[in-house]
Amino acid sequence: MAHAALTAPDRLWSAQEVLSRPSPVPAAAGVYGWHFEQAPCADLTAGRLLYVGIAPRLRKRVRYHYRGNAAGSTLRLTLGCLLGIELRRVGKSGTRMTFGKAGEAALSQWMAENARVCWIEHDEPWTMESEFISRLDLPLNLDQNRHNPFHSRLKELRSQARQRARELAVSA
């Protein structure tokens, strides 16, 4: 039953809805799932669950995915890499990596147009994450998901993006 709440939810929520005040996303702990109206790459199927995550505070986490940056969101890092947005080292130390101001804005716009989210409230979401990843085809999840056919390609793509970023000057 919990799987269906993420794979075939009654409702998917857009960025505009999630970012509105009051937000429909509960402040409670839970598991969230991402669906995409347009897949972030040709090898993935649109209109289905591609990624799950867990959060002690769903509202804060889901909102961050929609408007944060790649340094704080593995989902944003993955999507930006798949979409071919250039990853850059940023900040004074140059250790954080994001897509820069323009790249993050482009990614946020793409997500606003294509990414839809659903969630399940659960007091101990970490107890559900492993089960979802082992039972569902979640190509955008890397952790605990080596069995997924897309895993090695995604891992390599993200590694190449990081390597390229290290070769570039630190961005403002």
UniProtKB/TrEMBL annotation:
InterPro entries: GIY-YIG_endonuc (IPR000305), GIY-YIG_endonuc_sf (IPR035901), GIY_YIG_cat (IPR049311). It comes from Streptomyces kaempferi. This is GIY-YIG nuclease family protein. Residues 27-142 form the GIY-YIG domain. PROSITE patterns: GIY_YIG. Coiled coil: none annotated. It holds the Pfam family GIY_YIG_2. SUPFAM superfamilies: GIY-YIG endonuclease.
